[in-house]
Amino acid sequence: MAIYQDKLTPFGAKSEPAFITSGFKNWKKACEKFKAHENSHTHCHAVSVTAQESHPINAQLSSALATQQGDNRHCLEKIVSSIKYLVRQGQALRGHDDDDSNLYQLLKNLAEDDALLAKWLLRSQKEYLSPQIQNEILCSMSNSIVSEIADTIRNLPIFEFAIIMDGTQDISGKEQESICLRYIDSDMKPHEEFIGLYSVSETTGKSLAAVVKDVLLRLNLPMHGLRGQTYDGAANMSGKHAGAQALIKQEQPLALFVHCGAHCTNLIAQKACLASVLIRDALDWVNQLGVLFSQSGKFKAIHAATAHTENPSCTAIKPLCPTRWAVRSKAIRDVLSQYGSVLASLQEMASGASNTASTANGLLGQFRKGKTVLGLILASPVIDELECLSISFQKRTQTIAGMRTAVKVVQTSLKAKRNQESFNTLLKRRWLRVGETPLAGEPRRLEKECSRLERDVEEGSRRLAMAHNEIRHLKDELESAQNWNSPGSSSFSSRIRPSSDPHHPTEKALVSSSNPLLMDDINYPIISVGNLPQEILQQPSWIIAPTTTKKNLNATW
Question: Do 315 and 351 lie in a common domain?
Fold first, then answer.
């Protein structure tokens, strides 16, 4: 009681002096007095003050604060782990409403087994779930991953790496450059790591080269370790003088530039498909069919019902990718494997009264033509080969030697298909498939189409030969006309002047005037003299302007 005595008020000291000031003397009634004092207010107050002497109020507040911080740290770890999971799976964090977002719903699911998290979610203010905090957490994760990649490259036994860059526009139209780093670890295993997307104000070679240098500087990767560059074939990227690769090569000559193999394959597929009108039009009809399939729910239902009766494992028909030509083989195979159901669906769709009936009718007319089937048949094996080549180029373990070997294999395979026997075999194999569809008579039509194409080629060759013979005959006549005033030149003169009348207006214009002769007034044949032999043009008495147009013929005799 000595400790408590100094802290009593005068009223408290007088309440029970026997236990506080004067001391207890009535030992006969000690048990009764002790029980009464134990339940008194004075004793309770004394116990409370004594307990506070060992745990001060500031210590109690600090303990409560430490407990709260521990609980908040536990909830923050759950939030970070949830964000990491959603980002790893490529899922959106936020939704139209905060309570319906993927992150909040995932935390509610975790709170069923976590009392602290459940209590924290009941708070009115959830600071760690705001969009700003989420973005900060994502940036911290990104910086940590990129820093780890840069540390790995710097610690390589042989400090060498390559850079891969390509650009595209986002949905807002802003140009974004994606940058990847490629390196080989100590186990000779290649790695291609995505670094990030970087906005550029302009797409010139100088600006793109500055982006590459800035990225390497931020990652603390010296330029002397750069050994390779891979871009597309655009002038601002691969230009020999002002391209990004040329500007980087000025600082690091060992950074060899290699045109992206997959991009080259895509360009080859595009040129090959556009070179043939037959294949180009057939692919365009397939694309329009895919657009109709994706936009019309009625046509989709009709095709599903029609195709299910023939093939339970029918596939949807999708539009062609507008930029990636080497991935169109699947769409072509889907159309060829379901050609009968496609025609039946288009015919049923065209007989309706919907807004897309006219589109379906037009597509039906095109897919009934044999040249459409022929175009798809011819395009399928070529695009298949190029797609396999493109996939091979995109492998992370691909090397320059492997790429060259793959190109030779594809060249050999394509050359083996360029003969009449392979063409006939391809047609027969496709005719069997087409013969099972409503195009029962199409094999004959396809054969006629092939015969017509062959006749067109023969006719073109014959006309070309006739043109060569005519040119040779005209050249012989020009060489034999050495003296233009001699009678021997009559055969050639008859080509220029159809009349022997010396007073003919054409002859008068040629002899007496150097002004242009308007051919609209006189309906005589036009002779092109731009390719006359030099010995004829060097005759002093015969001067002809080298540019002869349809409107005038400048000649001076």
Answer: yes
